[in-house]
């Protein structure tokens, strides 16, 4: 199985503009996606869940200008890259047929956008943590 980091890098490198901005020394893994991918709904599909969630996580971070694997000062490119990563992560989650996780991720993306619109990064991080706990089966 290809690692989540490799899968995120493959998505980013598929676009020549983004490929130029890849931080190949960057590291994934801040705990949120791992928490979700270790829950009961992911049994037997942990790697697929982790890759989907890391794509969405990187999309979220890139939108805020703090990507782990993408380093660009171009805010327009950050938005486009974030959208690409969000979409690819949701497509992969859809392939897992987990409609409840997709609904939670859609809610999370919206709530994070609202938090970011008022420059409340702490709230956005709390939303991420809660959504990953829900997907991981650690809260209701």
Account of the 3D structure:
- The protein is an all-alpha fold and 140 residues long.
- The protein has one domain (4-136).
- Helix content is 67%, strand content 0%.
- It contains seven helices and no strands.
- The longest helix has 21 residues, at 75-95.
- The mean pLDDT is 90.
Give me a quick take on this structure.
It contains 7 helices and no strands.
Low-pLDDT parts are none
- Approximately what portion of the residues adopt beta-strand conformation? under 5%
**Helix-strand sequence:** HHHHHHH
| Count of folded domains | 1
Chain-wise SSE layout:
Layout: H1 4-13, H2 16-19, H3 32-37, H4 46-63, H5 75-95, H6 99-117, H7 121-136
Helix pairs in contact: 1-4, 4-5, 6-7
Main attributes?
single chain, 140 residues, mainly alpha, 7 helices, 67% helix, 0% strand, globular
């Amino acid at each position: 199985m290809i690692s989540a980091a490799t899968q995120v890098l493959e998505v980013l490198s598929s676009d020549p503009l983004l490929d130029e901005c890849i931080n190949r020394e960057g590291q994934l893994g801040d705990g949120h996606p791992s928490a979700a991918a270790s829950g009961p709904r992911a049994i037997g599909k942990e790697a697929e869940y982790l890759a989907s969630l890391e794509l969405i996580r990187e999309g979220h971070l890139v939108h805020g200008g703090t990507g782990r694997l993408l380093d660009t000062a171009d805010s327009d490119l950050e938005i486009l890259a974030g959208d690409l990563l969000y979409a690819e992560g949701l497509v992969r989650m859809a392939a897992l047929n987990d409609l409840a996780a997709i609904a939670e991720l859609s809610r999370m993306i919206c709530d994070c956008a609202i938090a970011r619109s008022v420059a409340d990064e702490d709230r956005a991080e709390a939303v991420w943590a809660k959504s990953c706990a829900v997907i991981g089966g650690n809260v209701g």
